[in-house]
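Dear colleague,

Following up on yesterday's call, I've attached the two folding results inline so they're easy to grep. Please treat them as preliminary; we haven't cross-checked anything against experimental data yet. The first protein's sequence and structure tokens come first.
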Amino acid sequence: MVNLRYASLLMMLTIAACAARAAAPVAVAPRASRAVLDTKAVTWSARDPKIELIPAHVRNLQLVVTRGRVANERFAWLISNGTDVIRVYHATSNAEAADIVAELGKMVFPTVAHPGDDIEWGGTGSVHAPGPAPPGPPGFPDAYVQQVMDIAWGMHRQQVQHGAEVGAPVH
């Protein structure tokens, strides 16, 4: 009889905990702004080397690498705070995509003191290509951009949560 009471109590606590968890608000990525939806890619090999890869004010960076429209083509999305596209680089080969990641690595994992020392960053990839190319510089369908931004938002939230758990300053 005692075991049945404890089992019932444990079951009730479990149900209550699950209900409380389900009632907690789910963080949803904000809708992408018109400026983000209108983002155009810059070809990595034709970029202006004078433009900083990561602007000095960025403290929280997400890198999302997506497939291109043809074999070995990639787009590297540099996003700040899960909502602000810094820029999108068009890599025409896997080697160029690797160069982008390597350059970012130099910025955020320097061997000597650098303003990038304080950047929190993460990287991931997506599962499908963006679809047919519109005319002009490579642009992207709105739904595709929102998918990229949803991924970046999730990464940003994980970075903020991890920072809070380890006592890092919030950027």
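Below is the second protein, in the same order (sequence, then structure):
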Amino acid sequence: MIKLSISSLEEASRKRPEGYLQEVMAAGRVEAGFLWLSDEDYAALRARFSGADAVTPAAIKAKARYAICKSCVNSENNAFGCKLHKGCCFGRWRSQPESRCYLGKW
């Protein structure tokens, strides 16, 4: 699952084609100021609106790290949090190549 700030989406919609925000919002679940999208819906929307290839080496690495985190005993909130790493956005931290797991799992 991907968690996106609705305010960030509204900001991005100014640079996107008409109907962008409505289509993105319809694809996910809104909860407390955030939109939750499945990985598949996120990839499809990214491919549709960014013009970029949704499958990049960084995305592959982040997805592999996420799978490792999901199986870890220190995982919290469906691997969007970690008992050993306190940060504002664990998913974003995990997707940065220079970041490292505190247990050395990735």
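For the second protein, one point worth flagging: Residues 4 and 35 are 5 Å apart (CA to CA).

Best wishes,
A.L.
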